[in-house]
Each structure stands twice: as C-alpha cells, then as structure tokens.
Design goal:
Largest sheet: 12 strands, mixed
Shape: globular
Helix content: 25-40%
Number of helices: 11
Radius of gyration: 19 Å
Oligomer: single chain
CATH topology: Rossmann fold
Structural class: alpha/beta
Number of strands: 12
Order of helices and strands: EHEHEHEHEHEHEHEEHHEEEHH
Strand content: 15-25%
CATH architecture: 3-Layer(aba) Sandwich
C-alpha cells in the first residue's frame, strides 16, 4: 500500500520518478480502510531533502500512511516561508489531535547543550504531549539523544572527531520485533558530533530498567534502542540517508575548513573520486517497516481517541 502525501510536496514528483507507490489525498479518501496517521517533526535544516529521504523508507510498508509534517516555531532559517506554510503544521495546530506514530528527526546542534537550543522548551512540550497523543515515536540521531536526555537523564558527550561513515553493527537482543528479519551483522550510517554512551545507560537505574539495547557498533557506538513496551524507539544513526549524503556533508565540511576525516568505510579504498556503494538501504527499509508494522499498526488502538 502507498503513502498518502500532498501532490504539491516537492518529494512527490521525485518519488514518482523512482517508481515509489504514492497516492494523492483525493484517492486516499475513496479507500475504505483505516490508514495509519504518521506525524514527522522535521528539525533538519534542509527540510525538503529530509522529507524525501524519510518518505522513501516509509513507502515500503504494506499499509496506507497519512503523512503530516510538524515544525517548531524557531526553526525557519533554511526553508522558505511558502514551503513551511504550505506543508507544515505548528504544535498549536495539532496539539489536540492524536496520531498512530511520530518521527522526530535529527538536527545539527550536537555541540550545544540541550538547554541552549533555541527551541528546546517547545521540543520538550512536544515530547511530553506525545506520551499521551501518539502510540509510538521513532527518534533519530540528535532527536534520539534529546529524548534520552529528556525522559531518562542520559547525557550526550561531544566526540573528538565527527562520527561519520558506514559502520558494521551487530544485534545484541535479536528476540525483539523491531529487529525481526535483521541479519546478525548489518551496516548503518552515522553522522554526528556527539554520542550517547553505553555505560551512562547501564549505570542509570531509571534508564537501565526501562531501555533495551538492540544494536551496537564497536566503531560507531550505540545505534538502536527501545523502551520496554516499544512506544519509544531511538536510532542514533541515519538509516534514511541517500547514497551521496555523506559525501556531500564531507565536501561541505571541507569548504568550511573544518578538516573533516574521510567518512569511514564509505568511499571505496578511501578514494573520494570513487562512487560509494550502498549497503545500508535494505536494513533501513526493514527498520522502518518493522516499526510501522509491529510498533504502530499491530499495537495502536483502532480508535485514535483511545490512545493514552
């Protein structure tokens, strides 16, 4: 089944060109099914890029998904006002509604204290609102670090160098539905200047009692966690990244004279002239499909108003 998005969204034509199954709102309204209502809080500066990447992964579920986008009020510098007004809601516009699922993206603010992020108080309101208005929430990269800090007091730590590359991960608790069908080892992308450390979770009684570590990389660190009932999922990497995203970030950081390391295990033979080969898409697709199926569709009440 397809994702249901506004036909005017820039991602629509790109996904159609890639043979991704999407439908318009008019066609969705004629289908006699109960679609899943998914809200995406997009904190990334290049919002159109992030929209397309996330929608591409969500399109592979067999369910119909109604997608809406949410923004915070102080995050408007990099995207046109017309785009935000056309395709995004504010928290005040949706705070009385309920959703089957919520995705919170990352944001390039890892070097700031959480409390110093301009929209931190609004983000905390959204986190707390989601506890009783959303059945399951998927937090990505900085969004995952922020939620782990807000809910469990787990700190983030700045890394000496940017964690950037394609890292080999292994399963630590393979019996959970979120990782059903995963290989014992798989690749996933990280791109961040901070980390959440395993020992901070294991030595924090509140976190260790409520969180399950599902996947880890010796080089990339923690990758995938969930709380005990699966209503909070934390992904510290970027399963949604396209094949050229890390390379573009590397060139951008070079242009800014940040002296970046070549992304780990990304360019063949570390030769930046060679085209990377994608080896993380199958995992990323399965991760999103499993979240939608097992944590949202199989568990959420049929009546959205029954979510609590």
């Amino acid at each position: 089944m397809p994702i249901n998005i506004n036909k005017e969204l820039p991602a629509y034509s790109k996904l159609i060109e890639e043979n991704i199954f999407v439908i318009t709102e008019d066609r969705a309204a004629r289908q006699d099914i109960r679609p899943m209502n998914i809200l995406i809080l997009n904190l990334m500066p290049q919002k159109i890029v992030a929209e397309t990447q996330l929608l591409r992964l969500l399109s592979n579920t067999p369910l119909q998904l109604n997608i809406e986008f949410l923004r915070v009020l102080r995050d408007t510098k990099h995207t046109s006002k017309d785009h935000l007004e056309s395709f995004y809601r504010t928290f005040e516009e949706i705070r009385t509604r309920k959703f089957d699922g919520l995705i919170v993206t990352g944001a390039p603010v890892e070097n700031l204290r959480f409390e110093d992020v301009s929209y931190w108080s609004e983000l905390c309101r959204i986190f707390d609102w989601a506890e009783h208005h959303v059945y399951s929430t998927l937090y990505i990269c900085w969004g995952a670090m922020a939620a782990l800090y807000h809910f469990y007091g787990v700190p983030k730590h700045r890394t000496t160098r940017k964690v950037s590359g394609v890292y080999r991960h292994h399963l630590e608790n393979p019996g959970y539905s979120l990782t059903r069908g995963f290989d014992d080892y798989f690749h996933a992308i990280h791109s961040r200047h901070a980390e959440v450390r395993r020992e901070d979770i294991e030595n924090n009684p509140r976190a260790s009692d409520q969180l399950v570590l599902l996947s880890y990389s010796p080089e990339g660190g923690l990758y995938l966690l969930q709380n005990n009932n699966g209503r909070k999922v934390f992904v510290t990497g970027h399963a949604e990244y396209e094949i050229g995203t890390l390379g573009q970030e590397y060139l951008r950081d070079q242009d800014r004279s940040l002296n970046p390391d070549i992304p780990y295990n990304y360019f063949p033979e570390n030769d930046t002239e060679k085209m990377p080969q994608m080896n993380w898409r199958a995992h990323g697709t399965l991760l999103f499909v499993n979240w939608i199926n097992y944590h949202v569709y199989q568990e959420t009440p049929y009546r959205l108003e029954d979510i609590h």
